[in-house]
Amino acid sequence: MDYAEEQSMEVEALEAIYMEEYTKIADSPLEYKIFLEPIQGGGEDENHVAIDMMVKYPETYPEVAPEITINNRRGLGDHQIPEIMELVNTTAEENIGMAMIFTIAEAVKEWLNENNVKGADGSMHTAMLQRMEAAKKAAADADAAAARAAAADVDEDEEAEEARRLQRLADGTPVNPETFADWKVRFKAEMRRAHAEGVGAAGGVAAAALAADLTHQATPQFTKPTGRQLFERHLATEGDEEGDEVKLEEDGEDWPEAAQEEGETVEVNTAVFAADDEDLDDLDDLEDSEEEEGG
Predict the structure, then answer these.
(1) How crowded is residue 247: how many other Cβ atoms within 10 Å of its Cβ?
(2) SS (H, E, C) 191-240
(3) Which of 86, 84, 76, 81 minimizes the C-alpha distance to 123?
(4) Based on the domain organization, do 75 and 167 belong to the same domain?
(5) Could you give the C-alpha distances from 205 to 192, 219, 276, 281, in angstroms and in order?
(6) Degrees (nearest 5) of the Cα angle 215, 218, 219?
(7) pLDDT of residue 246
(8) Which residues touch 133 (CB under 8 Å, ≥6 apart)?
(9) pTM given for the model
(10) Could you say which residues of the chain have pLDDT below 50?
(11) Which segments carry the region annotation Disordered (predicted)?
């Protein structure tokens, strides 16, 4: 492995990532520092703690761990620096053989974020504030977990109920004396309700239909007489080539109202009676012939 090339490539990447937070101290051996705070680029109002991570490469890095020291820049107590160093050493051991400075730096930033409390100097007051903050966060997490579990239970209950409903539809309702009696009671109740609603709605229609029927019965119905009826009643009188005028007698059941007016006449075509006259003459001759044969 070309250690110098590996180290040079890593430093180039770190300069691009951390930019102003990266500061080179020496070239041989390669040494630099990275300024770390919880929110990169944030102000002191947001970042209550901050450190300088000092890095020095051994000749055979990354086959061996780098030399790293932590300088407190803001907000940390003396007893907290060893905690950070323990985190640094553990992370370095886990990444022997590969470029590891970025991994170590991000682990330290996460620790700083968890301890980003104003006045986090390791005093009893600060410790109490941290415990309160941790308890508050734990309670919020527990509430969120409970809400998710409740929502999941509701979904499961709804799914189970839907499955039962579909199963009931598939199985149908078993018919036995109890279910039939229950259905009969409900059916009769529905029929009575439907009948009551129907009577109320149909009352007006029925009344109108009854009134129309009575009116129809009270109105005289007239039927125009046939030609034979006119002839048999001897209502036909004098005619001419175009048609004879015949005086019609009143008939309350057969004649239209217009024909009952006094003196009104209708035109009758006597030609329609010619066939009836011949039929009557033939009928008279037939009767005379039968009488002669019988006598």
Answers:
(1) 11
(2) HHHHHHHHHHHHHHHHHHHHHHHHHHHHCCCCCCCCHHHHHHCCCCCCCC
(3) 76
(4) no
(5) 20, 21, 50, 58
(6) 85
(7) 45
(8) 117
(9) 0.44
(10) 235-236, 238-255, 258-262
(11) 236-295
